[in-house]
Every structure is written in C-alpha cells, then in structure tokens.
Amino acid sequence: MNENRPPPDWVGDVSVGVDAWTRRSSAPGTAAPPPDTVAQVPEADPEAVARKILLDQLTGQARTRKELADKLAAKNVPGDLAARLLDRFEEVGLIDDEAFARAWIASRGATRSDVGRRLAKRALAQELHRKGVANEVAREALDEIDPDDEAAAARGLVRAKLRSVERVDDVKATRRLVGMLARKGYGSGLAFAVVREELANAGREAVDEE
Question: Which UniProt keywords apply (predicted)?
Fold first, then answer.
C-alpha cells in the first residue's frame, strides 16, 4: 500500500463521499443497488386482515361475539368494520352466543364427566357473563338445566370429598363440604341438604351452625 498517495478529495466530507460512491455505482459495468422490495409490497386489505383474525380465532373453538370484538379491537380494527364483519359472521352461523352458552354449560355443568369440576347454575352464569353472553341468553340456557341433575352433581361432589373429612369432627366436616359446594356455585339450602344427606349415609351427622 502506498502511504504517500494523497487521500481522495472527499475524505472528511460525508456528502462528497456519497456523491463519489453514487457516481461509481452508476458507471458502466457497475451493478446497480437492489430495488426496494418493501416499498413494492401492496398494502394489506383491512377487511381481509380482520376476516382472517376472526377465522383464526374460531378455528377449533367457538367464541362469543364479545370475545371476538375484543380481539379485533386489540388488533386496531376500526369499529365500523368490526361490527359489519361480526354481523355477517352471525348471519352465517359462525357466531352464535346461544349455542355457545349451551355448549359451555354442557362442558362445565352438572353433566360433565369430571365430577370434581362440575359447576352449579350461579357459577355458570358468572362464567358466561365474563364471556360476554347477554344475561337473557344465558338465563334461557341455564333454565334448561334439570334441577335433579344439579342436585345429583352436588351429591357427586360431596361423595368425592367425603374421604378427605374422615378425620375431622362433624362440625368441621359440614363446614368444609358446604363451603366446597358454595365455591362451585351451589346455594346454601341445596348445599346443606345434600351434605346432611350424604353424611347421614356415611353414619355421621351434619351440624347446622346457624
């Protein structure tokens, strides 16, 4: 390398250096810089994007209108476009809060195969409310629950827990079993009646502390 060679006249001046590089790149036989492919990508259609969001959310799982509306809002989909698409999805049956409520009750309520996770009407109503199901729609679906099924579910819960209270006295056993049913959404009247019946069947006595 010749250290005595004078530096280019653009050294120290960025703008002059850029001009020099540009002139070289445009010279014959010099490859041109690659095109800006990002600028050539067409802007996505907002409706197509929103529709894909909805279809992705509904793949393999039913959802309520409110859940889908919240998802669109989180993705900054304009409100008028979201409402129009949600209306259309309801028209074709892809969104059905009534069907959702019935399916949710079947999976979480008295007929659930997993006894330990069965919930009573009150707890189911709270869950449907959080899902955005209208109170009237939820009430109609909950009214279809057979009271005998709900009582049977409560008995199943108590029977599954009886072994856990074998070593405590009747007062504590009653309190724990009734409390367990209360957390599942069962009213105090039904809860105590079921606990009293099941403890009696086990040769014990439920103690009403009231």
Answer: Cytoplasm
